[in-house]
Amino acid sequence: MFINKGLQEINLKIVYYGPGLSGKTTNLEFIYQQLDPTIRSDLVSLKTREERTLYFDFMQLELGQIKGKKPRFNLYTVPGQVYYTFSRKIILRGVDGIVFVADSQKHRMSDNLDSLLDLEQNLINMGHTLQNFPWIIQYNKRDLPDIEAIETLQSNLNFFGASYTESVATQGVEVIKTLKMVMSEVISKIDMLVEQ
Ligand SMILES: Nc1nc2c(ncn2[C@@H]2O[C@H](COP(=O)(O)OP(=O)(O)O)[C@@H](O)[C@H]2O)c(=O)[nH]1
Ligand SMILES: [Mg+2]
Fold first, then answer.
1. Confidence at 181, pLDDT banded by 50, 70, 90
2. Is residue 109 one of the residues assigned to a domain?
3. Whether the CB of 21 sits within 6 Å of ligand 1
4. What per-residue confidence (pLDDT) applies to 149?
5. pLDDT higher for 67 or 187?
6. Which pairing describes strands 70-77 and 2-4: parallel, antiparallel, or unpaired?
7. Cα of 16 to ligand 1 centre, how many Å?
8. Its pTM surpasses 0.85
9. What separation in Å is there between the alpha carbon of 104 and the centre of ligand 1?
10. For 117-139, how does the pLDDT look when each residue is reduced to its tens digit (9 = 90+)?
11. Whose CA is nearest to atom 2 of ligand 1?
12. To test the ligand 1 pocket, which listed residue (25, 26, 118) has its Cβ within 8 A of the most ligand atoms?
């Protein structure tokens, strides 16, 4: 979080985390299409030739007011592929809220878990814990045939009882709901920190 007292702005950072190909970039692309250009920036994506996220995707939103200050939400995605460990650490710096985008397909369960443990370790190294951090889980790709039941995903991944959504990011199902949910987690936390 960065508060610019002169401009009465609060900069908040939300990171979409999760294994490669779980749908993080697709979330941002849908949000970008839906929102009025006057409240959002361009979507900046650094991609490889194969259309995979190379470093990150980034977009900024300006919404409403918190105690007279303008919140500016900076949305990022991380590259999920295992070997981009360093990029993920850098992108997580100063994070205020996280959406963990899980791939619901059965064969992606171990990738989900590896990515979640990687997230937890990175948070611990930054002096946070998953238990106390504002984060939610998005169970994505609910439209595909060979997916885990929500109860199974819940018992395997949601060990701290975080809020969750069931999405189809390619169709925009529960994408905005996910964003609103993580924003309210973040805001409820900073409400206590930001004085009038
Ligand atoms: N069927 C289906 N495909 C999805 C869904 N979300 C994302 N995808 C596809 O999964 C692939 C990877 O998505 P992407 O957003 O690039 O994943 P990222 O690596 O997490 O950024 C793309 O081909 C998307 O179109 C979904 O909910 N359902
Ligand atoms: Mg991506």
1. very high
2. yes
3. yes
4. 98
5. 187
6. unpaired
7. 13
8. yes
9. 11
10. 999 999 999 999 999 999 999 99
11. 141
12. 26
26 occurs within a structural domain: yes
CA nearest ligand 1 atom 26, residue? 141
Q: How many domains is the chain partitioned into structurally?
A: 1
Flag whether pLDDT at 67 surpasses 90.
no
Q: Is 80 in the pocket of ligand 1 (CB under 6 A)?
A: yes
Eight-state DSSP code of residue 43 = P
**What integer best gives the mean pLDDT of the chain?**
89
What is the C-alpha to C-alpha distance for residues 180 and 129, in angstroms, rounded to an integer? 22
Which domain, by its residues, includes 162? 2-191
* 196 within domain boundaries: no
Mean pLDDT value of segment 139-157: 98
CATH number of the domain within which 22 lies: 3.40.50.300
Task: Give the residue carrying structure tokens 């900076």.
Answer: 74
Pocket test for ligand 1, best of 16, 76, 170 (most atoms within 8 A of CB): 170
Measure the CA–CA gap between 79 and 87, rounded to whole angstroms.
7
Residues recorded for the chain: 196
- Spatial CB neighbours of 108, under 8 Å, sequence gap ≥ 6: 19, 22, 102
